[in-house]
Amino acid sequence: MKKPTRVNHPPEVALPPGNRALVAPIYQSVKFEFETVEETEQYLRGERPGFFYTRSSNPTTRQLEQLLAELQGREDCLVTATGVGAIAQTLLALTRAGDHILCFVETYNPTRYLIRRVLGRFGVTHTMLSIEDTTGIERVLAAQAVRLVYFESPTNPVTKIADLAAITRAARAAHALTVMDNTFAGFHQHGEFDVDVFVHSLTKYASGAGDVMGGAVIARAELIRTLHADFRSLGGTLDPHAAFLILRGLKTYFVRYQAQCERAVSIAQLLAAHAAVARVHYPGLPTHPQYALAARQMRDFGTIVTFDLRGGEAAARRFADALELFALTPSLGSGESLILTAQIMSGRELDAEQQRISGVTPGTVRLSIGLEDVGDLTEDVTRALAAAGP
Fold it and tell me: Which domains does the chain show, CATH number per domain?
């Protein structure tokens, strides 16, 4: 073999029997091969396991999928390049022209856009209620055929809590699928409820470092099989190296999530006691209107603390500008504490009544609590509250 050939066909290094890497290798390869045409055809017919093309499946991404499915208490999973990709591909794969979606005002802005604008162009209609309108949910499900009920809990950004038992029970009775964005709650929560499909942004708590993007769709194996062909053709594949980084981040997932929740409770209590704060939206506080529901459904109350400043938009701007440890930037779940103001978060396409339902006011601020020392965070927030004024 000449050297120009050898560099394209390097020697293979195989681990001997009984010898394995403690951390699985990154299969940074687009292509895989079988020994013969017949073996390849058997794979393509589904008669033998293996891998062929990474857009369809890859050993590294497959390891991540199997881990996430187990964490969420479901049979299987598909990972995608971004969290929004997971949402978009799920919505596209599960709906067709003439279908109807029940969704909610208190939902991530890009999700509302996908349902209202993108799917709307293809003949998918929707009804949008408040996640607190249990009677309305039952009314809509009884009045017409609904393909999907799409919701999240806690909601972004004001952490309203969906009544999971009531929603899933009503949807099941109406033969509608439930799709839940479970990103805020994490992989260890809500798996005991009768949710058909969980979607997550892996960019947040799974990674934990804020340096890689990804999404996941988790469901029973039969449903994942129906999604797989569309996902493969839509092409929003997670890169194997990104999958490896997320797998690495998941090693500390439980430690990070619980530590961040502990800090979030401290910050929420500080805010609730401060005169400049009109209201704190944190489901772990007994003053939260759905505290009892959250306590029944959740093991941890989350790392997002949202609150309303009495001084409105001007106070929110002063507060954000005075912070030193909180970065003014999107996302959540990483080691750094983050902040967003209402002007960045608000759904500009919502009408006045929908804006009211959303719970976002000009003085609303969302904090994502990180892993900094709780004393440092408390000092930073206290100083910024003083700058925000009464």
Answer: 69-250 (3.40.640.10), 253-388 (3.90.1150.10)
